[in-house]
Amino acid sequence: MPRVLLIEDDPSVREGVELGLRRRGHEVRTAPTGEAGLAALGEFRPDLLLLDLMLPGMNGVQVCRRVREDSQLPIIMLTARGDDFDVVVGLEAGADDYIVKPARTEVIEARIRAVLRRIEDPGAGRSAVEVHGELTIDRAGLTVARAGERIALAPSEMKLLLHLSAAPEQVFSRQQLLEHVWEHSYHGDARLVDACVRRLRNKIEDVPGEPRYIQTLRGFGYRFGPL
């Protein structure tokens, strides 16, 4: 079972989530502050980080940015308000998903499994290595390079790129992408998609504001197709 690091300052929430995940077989390490959580990362080596947004001192957004400086560890943010402006900032900082508290253990478990699920190649039958202009996508090795230089992608970014590039020129709505990439079958939050697209563009596009690879069709969604 995946090893989970939980950074949460509320003792009742921390203990409840830890107990629920341990009962489901996870090895869990907890930390009450961002600083303590960052210190535990190297020692515990988790498979996933559950990160509270509103932490004392170093907040969740700052922790997320620190982690993303040298790691693509899957990150799910915990927030008390789904409409919080900081949710968008957290997603922009590199979080793969978020959960609104309070949340049942089965909901947290489902999100963990969705983020950690093996990236299945949606382009069955396609070449394992594809070259799109300066962008090279190795579907078998799950690596991406631009002009020969390897690019580190978070799990949600990799899944999104694989899904879009498997069907060049096909337009996908935000809801379709939520269902296929994040596995949110309900009417999900389009902010997840938009934030991930912006992060991905910042990594693979020469000029993110004038994208060649991931194009926006206003009112419809996104498509992949190098210009």
UniProtKB/TrEMBL annotation:
<dbReference type="InterPro" id="IPR001867">
    <property type="entry name" value="OmpR/PhoB-type_DNA-bd"/>
</dbReference>
<feature type="domain" description="OmpR/PhoB-type">
    <location>
        <begin position="127"/>
        <end position="226"/>
    </location>
</feature>
<feature type="domain" description="Response regulatory">
    <location>
        <begin position="3"/>
        <end position="116"/>
    </location>
</feature>
<protein>
    <submittedName>
        <fullName>Response regulator</fullName>
    </submittedName>
</protein>
<dbReference type="InterPro" id="IPR039420">
    <property type="entry name" value="WalR-like"/>
</dbReference>
<keyword id="KW-0238">DNA-binding</keyword>
<dbReference type="InterPro" id="IPR036388">
    <property type="entry name" value="WH-like_DNA-bd_sf"/>
</dbReference>
<keyword id="KW-0804">Transcription</keyword>
<dbReference type="Pfam" id="PF00486">
    <property type="entry name" value="Trans_reg_C"/>
</dbReference>
<feature type="DNA-binding region" description="OmpR/PhoB-type">
    <location>
        <begin position="127"/>
        <end position="226"/>
    </location>
</feature>
<keyword id="KW-0805">Transcription regulation</keyword>
<feature type="modified residue" description="4-aspartylphosphate">
    <location>
        <position position="52"/>
    </location>
</feature>
<dbReference type="InterPro" id="IPR001789">
    <property type="entry name" value="Sig_transdc_resp-reg_receiver"/>
</dbReference>
<dbReference type="Pfam" id="PF00072">
    <property type="entry name" value="Response_reg"/>
</dbReference>
<dbReference type="InterPro" id="IPR011006">
    <property type="entry name" value="CheY-like_superfamily"/>
</dbReference>
<keyword id="KW-0597">Phosphoprotein</keyword>
<keyword id="KW-0902">Two-component regulatory system</keyword>
